[in-house]
Design goal:
Blueprint lengths: L8 E5 L4 H5 L1 H8 L11 H11 L5 E8 L2 E11 L7 E3 L10 E2 L4 H9 L4 E2 L9 H12 L21 H7 L2 H17 L17
Parallel strand pairs: 4-6
Antiparallel strand pairs: 1-2, 2-3, 3-4, 3-5
Helix pairs in contact: 4-5
């Protein structure tokens, strides 16, 4: 694979999810070549999220091509009005944030993006993510001041043993709304839940 130095980092505006759907095929192909990919990194998940919640501020897709093949993606928001300087931060509704890039170039990819910035704010990235440590290392090497705030608890959903027992524990209006919604859904079509073992088993739009 070519070095990132032989490529240019393309930036696309992100007024809506159309930009995501335009590179959906290439995006999915990239994910199949990245270890530990998961459904929450797919264009389907992020595209639908944008459709539901919209785009905040000046959203951008930073896309990297190597040998004319998509090799890296970062969805970020540029805030040029910030008094502290050029600020880049994830702004799409997500419980954790990941860059997407080939293993061989991910450090260079992050460094390329950070090189033009005065301040970088990233929220809700897990310590298990390689990008957490890449960004921390780059910041330390560049003598940046670093402020890391830990978050022990995030929103979570405890899956019940079965729906009937769960509904029995819920009282009043909430139970009636959920029951009614389930009945309407069953009238339209069968609902199937499937465990995704591999990112190649993506749900078609």
């Amino acid at each position: 694979m070519a070095s990132i130095k032989d490529t240019s980092l393309g930036v696309m505006g992100l007024e809506d999810s159309e930009k995501i759907w335009e590179i959906e095929k290439e995006w999915n192909n990239l994910l199949t070549k990245i270890p530990n990919s998961h459904p929450f990194m797919t264009p389907y998940w992020i595209g639908v999220t944008f459709d539901l919640y919209g785009v905040i501020h000046d959203g951008k897709i930073y896309a990297l091509e190597v040998d004319r093949e998509l090799a890296g993606i970062a969805l970020l928001d540029v805030d040029m009005e910030n008094k502290r300087g050029k600020t880049l931060s994830p702004r799409y509704p997500h419980y954790f944030n990941e860059f997407i890039a080939y293993h061989e170039i991910r450090e260079e990819f992050v460094e390329e993006i950070l090189s033009a910035l005065d301040v970088f704010i990233i929220t809700q990235i897990p310590e298990s993510s390689p990008y957490y440590w890449i960004m921390k290392k780059l910041a330390e090497n560049k003598k940046y001041s670093i402020n890391i705030t830990g978050q022990r608890n995030l929103k979570s959903l405890i899956i019940p043993e079965n729906v009937e027992k769960w509904l029995y524990k819920i009282k009043g209006k909430a139970s009636r709304i959920i029951t009614s919604t389930l009945k309407r859904a069953k009238r339209f079509e069968e609902i199937e839940t499937k465990r995704i073992e591999d990112v190649s088993e993506l749900v078609d739009r």
